[in-house]
Structure to design on (1264 residues):
């Protein structure tokens, strides 16, 4: 079988390319790291549509200046809108992590329209955390079993680090949030130790309603999430590893499981 | 000038304004005022002739949907009491504005043009405070007037005046001429010339310059270039930078006359050569004799030290300080410190990928209530600003931190210490050549890459070489812009892989004068034209262009045939790169401006012309009183004593704050800064993988610092730091034969002066610390691969001199053979046994306990490195063989803090009998609990491995002192007598100061 091809744009202050590329390679994909300026100017020999997966990695594109993801989203809309539309029309999958999720949200790809082709219209926002400021701490997220999302298929609850200052998901209205929930477009939720949806800090790091940690589009092919699956690729990434090595090593690292689900069948 | 459009973005009513809420909370906590509410606005002034439709589009885009709203002009959503506006002064780096401009251009689909300008500010709309109170809030909390403008308006004033459209722009002058500076002056005029021009040169150095130029006036080469017997201002400033203490380390290279307790004087020719380089050479010789080859790749001659790690990767490490700028502008000084030290590994050899940051700060007490001398910022403000700066610098650069620490003492009120370090990974081979070798040749082009040059950071190097006063220059402050630097690094890594440059170095202290001047040593000389340098604004004099320390710049040597490819790649990546001239084989540092020579300095004079410094050092061994002991407490008192001890500034938990630093970006982190069952106990050392494709080889980082030990003897201070940092990486599972150290000296001024009566004592402390450092490094076989010194950590304010205690930071980087064998201080299960290795002595002098008691007596902890190395080797071997489940090196706070941390990390109960601990002398209960005796480990072991561990450590001072249990209490006894018996949870609340305002 031909390996799944992943396009991983870099530059402008994105910074999680090394571990995200490693994650995709660990699950058998082939990854091209391409500078955004080469995509903007069509200098890269392949189009986006030549790939099965687009990975929007974490980082601080343009320093999160003005708002997280804003400057990069503005640039992508100006230079790559048609290429992206063609890629998505062909069934391409997208994973946006942290800053990548913010960028996809600003681009209007998440949560996207209820039906039809992406229209690049922002409908929701990732606002400042309720408790102001950036924080690096591990959280637990659990999938919503009703979701059409391809990236969380077969996933159990996973522990991942949360590392952001702007991650509070706010939909256009309460009604819009209810519809997203009903459509299974809120595939990942922060949960507490007992597995219950977490609404308060620190289990819910940003104060998102319904404990939303990740959002997908109506097709389930585009996923954005705030916690970092790219930061749990080896057992020793897990904070419990020093004390409970055997137990942690017995399971597939939770971050890797998300990459595996997304690459399978792509 | 194009017309100005004002755009305001704020939170829509009904949604939480998180920033406003946070400001309101800080106003309540720190200023005791009670605002009813705070709303915030981000303000953009766009000077670019936007049409009305374009302005609306920008406001809409910046606001986004749902939570925020934008408006052109003023965003008016109802009354408030006072508006406070805070924006940068003209010429201060405004990174947000730079990004905003990019977004506006892509949104509108057109470039804004050369004349356009974007600036940002912030508006705080306060309710429930008066104008006077608002002014206080602005100055004490929201703004730093060194770099920012503050405006305060009542609602009526705000409503009655048009929106503020004043753009902060540096007034642009025409080009400024080069001047010559006559040096044929009497001594007092030479001294005042040095002072008035901020040259920071001594009389002897000024005389050396005068004598040199007297002769140089007759040099035909100089005359042919149109220069005479007086230096140009370009030459004078260039020499002052190059000869500054900051760049030249004159004190560490001086000849010292050292007298000890009235004995015959000794002469020390260069502390650096004798105690630092000499130590490393001796250690390296021993390694070569033992192993047949060295594992040191590059030490002392480049921007950072380089050691071997894997067959494909070297490790690079450098730690710097950025003290003076952080005292004036904590945020700007600190962010510049971290992004500045990033450039050191990046500018080492052919360049290193950046892996991890480290930081450490010495501050005045954050809750300082007493009067503060005028001109000093409150230590809490310095602390908040420094953290914020290093957080932004590290996080935005995508570099995790591995180690961070803080130390508090009143003597850091005058000058805080801000240490920042960066670890890099250098490919063994880069573009077919050894990664550590750079080679600038005659004919290579001089290319400056990155940010533009402005007046920011002029005289930074000379400024930090002088004491801080009320009149310290504001232009010495820069603000780092991590995103500009990140984009430059991304570009340079591509250029590196394609072999487009042949040498690289960073532009830090001294700007181009240092980077080009240093690089020119290899080819012989350099000729550059300052008129080609890209400027932030017009009106800089040529000397300012040469010495500006404007940030985010690297200097490259580029072969002429590769220049076009390099410049083209830079253009594609939206990074500025400029050809400034060429390296030459002529022995001159030759600077031109628009083709006219403005400086022609012989390279030999530039680098070796400064006179050698001589320093007197005199040591009188202090007589210390014994420690005033107190009777052993009943258990309730013991519990209270431990709880209050753990809550001290120097021991308490800082987890909440430190989690605002990213510690796991790049996915290479193995042992995180915060560990344990509750993920809140500081690790002894950080452990990282070297690379995703580097097998399981990793490295460990640790550090230690004991400033107060200098109160008795800087020799003990230096050795305690080295000993603890070594024990920490050993406890983490590092190879004991692959520990490299970095030395960072921060000293009070050891040079005599009218206001510095005890200079000879400070110089003697420098000698004693360096001897201590050398002895212990030779004993442990730990080479010093890099270091830095900062020698003017004094502040004279309001007629008072505040000097820091002599402080040597020892930082370790050690190779870990297999990260899967890394150990932390977390025991795994009830029933595990706790062993103490190493003797506890009656060594309470200068410890945290002594500070808590206000006791200036007692013996300071001393090291016996020759005796201890075999002990450490056996502990390291036991850890490497997987015999222990947890390991810990006790440090500040002694066993008292260590036992608490062990219990907390395990999430278990722990019972200990200190009467079993190995001792030297006859320590009482206080010493057993609080002594900071060096050379000790605490090891946890599963019961079934205990006998094996005991056998492995037999003959050492080792004893089983306790056991873990499934309860939740920490019980510490001395034989039959209980000293402490308290739930770990209770102690934790004290340690975290929960319920206590901070």
């Amino acid at each position: 079988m031909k390996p799944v091809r992943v396009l991983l744009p870099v530059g402008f202050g994105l910074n999680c390319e090394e571990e995200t590329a490693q994650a995709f390679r660990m699950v058998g994909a082939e990854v091209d790291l391409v500078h955004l300026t080469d995509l903007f100017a069509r200098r890269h020999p392949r189009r986006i549509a030549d790939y099965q997966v687009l990975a929007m990695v974490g980082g601080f594109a343009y320093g999160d200046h003005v708002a997280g993801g804003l400057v990069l989203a503005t640039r992508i809309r100006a230079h790559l809108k048609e290429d992206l539309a063609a890629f998505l029309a062909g069934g391409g999958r997208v994973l946006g992590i942290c800053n990548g999720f913010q960028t996809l949200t600003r681009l209007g790809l998440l949560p996207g329209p209820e039906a039809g082709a992406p229209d690049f219209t922002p409908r929701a926002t990732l606002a400042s955390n309720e408790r102001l400021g950036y924080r690096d701490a591990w959280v637990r997220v659990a999938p919503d079993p009703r979701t059409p999302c391809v990236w969380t298929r077969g996933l159990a609850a996973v522990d991942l680090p949360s590392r952001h200052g702007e991650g509070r998901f706010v939909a256009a209205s309460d009604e819009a949030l209810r519809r997203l929930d009903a459509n299974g477009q809120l595939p990942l939720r922060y949960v507490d130790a007992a597995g219950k949806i977490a609404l308060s800090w620190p289990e819910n790091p940003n104060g998102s309603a319904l404990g939303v940690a990740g959002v997908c589009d109506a097709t389930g092919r585009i996923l954005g999430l705030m916690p970092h699956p790219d930061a749990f690729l080896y057992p020793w990434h897990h904070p419990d590893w020093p004390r409970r090595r055997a137990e942690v090593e017995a399971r597939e690292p939770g971050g890797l499981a998300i990459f595996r689900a997304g690459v399978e069948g792509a | 000038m194009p017309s100005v459009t004002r755009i305001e973005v704020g939170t829509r009513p009904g949604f939480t304004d998180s920033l406003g809420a946070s400001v309101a909370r800080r106003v309540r906590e720190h200023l005791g005022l009670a605002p009813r509410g705070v709303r915030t606005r981000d303000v953009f002034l766009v000077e670019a002739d936007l049409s009305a439709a374009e302005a609306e589009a920008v406001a809409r885009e910046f606001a986004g949907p749902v939570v925020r709203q934008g408006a052109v002009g003023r965003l008016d959503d109802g009354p408030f009491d006072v508006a406070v506006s805070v924006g940068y002064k003209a010429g201060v780096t405004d990174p947000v504005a730079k990004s905003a401009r990019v977004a506006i251009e892509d949104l509108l689909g057109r470039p804004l043009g050369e004349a356009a300008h974007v600036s940002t500010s912030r508006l705080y709309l306060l309710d429930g405070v008066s104008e006077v109170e608002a002014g206080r809030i602005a100055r004490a909390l929201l703004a730093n007037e060194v770099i920012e403008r503050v405006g305060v308006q009542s609602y009526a004033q705000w409503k009655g005046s048009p929106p503020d459209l004043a753009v902060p722009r540096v007034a642009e002058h025409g080009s400024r001429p080069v001047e010559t500076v006559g040096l044929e002056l009497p001594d007092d005029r030479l001294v005042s010339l040095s002072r008035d021009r901020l040259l920071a040169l001594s009389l002897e150095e000024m005389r050396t310059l005068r004598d040199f130029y007297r002769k140089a006036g007759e040099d035909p080469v100089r005359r042919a270039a149109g220069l005479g017997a007086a230096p140009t201002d370009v030459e004078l400033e260039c020499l002052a930078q190059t000869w500054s203490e900051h760049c030249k380390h004159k004190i560490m290279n001086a000849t010292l006359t050292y007298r000890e307790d009235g004995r015959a004087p000794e002469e020390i020719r260069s502390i650096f050569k004798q105690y630092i380089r000499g130590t490393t050479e001796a250690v390296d010789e021993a390694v070569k004799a033992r192993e047949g080859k060295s594992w040191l790749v590059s030490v002392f001659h480049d921007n950072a030290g380089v050691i071997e790690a894997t067959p494909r990767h070297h490790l690079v490490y450098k730690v710097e300080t950025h003290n003076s700028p952080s005292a004036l502008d904590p945020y700007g000084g600190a962010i510049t410190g971290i992004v500045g030290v990033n450039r050191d590994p990046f500018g080492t050899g052919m360049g290193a990928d950046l892996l991890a940051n480290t930081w450490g700060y010495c501050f005045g007490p954050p809750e300082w209530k007493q009067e503060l001398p005028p001109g000093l910022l409150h230590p809490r403000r310095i602390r908040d600003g420094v953290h914020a700066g290093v957080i932004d610098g590290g996080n935005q650069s995508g570099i995790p931190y591995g180690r961070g620490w803080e130390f508090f003492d009143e003597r850091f009120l005058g000058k805080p210490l801000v240490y920042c370090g960066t670890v890099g990974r250098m490919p063994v081979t880069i573009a077919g050549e050894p990664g550590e070798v750079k080679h600038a040749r005659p004919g290579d082009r001089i290319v400056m890459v990155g940010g533009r040059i402005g007046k920011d950071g002029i005289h930074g190097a000379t400024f930090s070489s002088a004491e801080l006063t009320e009149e310290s220059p504001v232009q010495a402050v820069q603000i780092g812009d991590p995103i500009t630097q990140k984009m430059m690094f991304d570009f340079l890594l591509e250029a590196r892989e394609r072999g487009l440059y042949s040498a690289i170095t960073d532009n830090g202290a001294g700007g181009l004068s240092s980077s080009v001047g240093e690089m020119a040593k290899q080819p012989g000389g350099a000729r550059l034209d300052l008129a080609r340098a890209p400027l932030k604004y017009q009106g800089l004099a040529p000397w300012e262009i040469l010495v500006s320390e404007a940030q985010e710049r690297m200097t490259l040597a580029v072969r002429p045939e590769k220049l076009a490819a390099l410049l083209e790649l830079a253009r594609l990546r939206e990074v500025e790169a400029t050809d400034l001239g060429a390296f030459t084989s002529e022995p001159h540092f030759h600077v031109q401006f628009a083709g006219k020579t403005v400086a022609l300095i012989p390279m030999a004079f530039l680098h070796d012309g400064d006179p050698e410094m001589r320093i007197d050092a005199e040591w009188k061994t202090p007589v210390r009183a014994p420690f005033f002991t107190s009777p052993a407490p009943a258990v309730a008192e013991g519990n209270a004593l431990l709880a209050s001890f753990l809550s001290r500034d120097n021991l308490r938990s800082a987890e909440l704050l430190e989690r605002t630093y990213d510690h796991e970006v790049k996915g290479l982190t193995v042992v995180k800064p915060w560990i344990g069952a509750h993920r809140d106990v500081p690790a002894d050392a950080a452990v990282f993988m070297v690379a995703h494709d580097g097998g399981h080889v990793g490295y460990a980082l640790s550090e230690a610092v004991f400033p107060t030990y200098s109160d008795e003897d800087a020799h003990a201070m230096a050795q305690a730091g080295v000993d603890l940092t070594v024990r920490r990486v050993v406890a983490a599972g590092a190879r004991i034969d692959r520990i490299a150290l970095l030395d960072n000296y921060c000293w009070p001024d050891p040079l005599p002066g009218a206001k510095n009566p005890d200079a000879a004592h400070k110089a003697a402390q420098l000698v004693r610390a360096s001897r201590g450092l050398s002895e212990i490094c030779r004993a442990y076989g730990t080479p010093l691969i890099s270091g830095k010194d900062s020698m003017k950590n004094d502040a004279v304010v309001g007629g008072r001199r505040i000097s820091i205690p002599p402080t040597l930071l020892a930082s370790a980087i050690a190779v870990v053979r297999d990260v899967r064998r890394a150990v932390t201080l977390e025991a795994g299960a009830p029933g595990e046994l706790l062993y103490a290795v190493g003797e506890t002595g009656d060594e309470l002098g200068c410890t945290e306990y002594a500070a808590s008691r206000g006791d200036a007596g007692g013996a300071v902890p001393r090291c016996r490195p020759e005796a201890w190395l075999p002990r450490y080797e056996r502990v390291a071997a036991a850890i490497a063989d997987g015999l222990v489940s947890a390991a810990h090196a006790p440090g500040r706070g002694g066993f008292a803090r260590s036992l608490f941390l062990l219990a907390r990390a395990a999430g278990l109960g722990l019972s200990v009998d200190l009467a079993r601990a190995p001792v030297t002398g006859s320590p009482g209960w206080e010493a057993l609990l609080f002594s900071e005796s060096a050379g000790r480990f605490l090891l946890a072991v599963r019961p079934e491995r205990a006998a094996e561990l005991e056998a492995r450590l037999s003959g050492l001072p080792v004893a089983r002192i306790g056991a873990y249990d499934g309860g939740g209490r920490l019980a510490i006894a001395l034989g039959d007598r209980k000293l402490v018996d308290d739930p770990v949870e209770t102690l934790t609340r004290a340690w975290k100061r929960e319920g206590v305002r901070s």
